[in-house]
Design brief:
mainly alpha; 71% helix
């Protein structure tokens, strides 16, 4: 393809391999699932381990396979527990909430509460922590 010929751009944008990284990853995972369920499950686990905090909830919503994600609860809780910063852990909790698994969410919330001191580093973090606690009726 000629690098200066832009006629193909419209076709690429409307195709299944869009510029949305999450959608592209989900599309590849769906194709992998058709080939091998075992490979699909490993790929979902890897995606959950290495996705950026902000991309996790978008990935979960686009994948639409909560059962596959819930098989890797350990990875999700580990991400909340060992995340570089507490603020990013709140983004991960948004993804956990989407899974509608009360036990998983309450375990994650307990980890968030245990990291309470970290949220005091910045006023914005502390405010988001308080909002999270209030919105989800979590006892500290």
């Amino acid at each position: 393809m000629n690098a200066y010929d832009m006629d193909h751009v419209e076709d690429d944008v409307s195709g299944e391999m869009t510029f949305d990284d999450n959608l592209r990853l989900v599309t590849l995972l769906e194709k992998t699932k058709k080939i091998s369920k075992e490979t699909y499950e490993k790929a979902v686990r890897n995606a959950l381990q290495y996705l950026d905090d902000l991309d996790l909830n978008r990935f979960i919503s686009k994948l639409k396979d909560n059962d596959a994600v819930l098989q890797h609860k350990d990875v999700l809780l580990d991400r909340v527990r060992n995340n570089e910063n507490a603020y990013g852990a709140l983004d991960i909790m948004d993804g956990l909430k989407m899974l509608k698994d009360e036990k998983l969410f309450s375990e994650g919330a307990a980890i968030i509460v245990s990291r309470k001191k970290e949220f005091k580093k910045f006023p914005v973090w502390e405010e988001n922590y308080k909002n999270f606690i209030r919105e989800n009726n979590i006892k500290e």
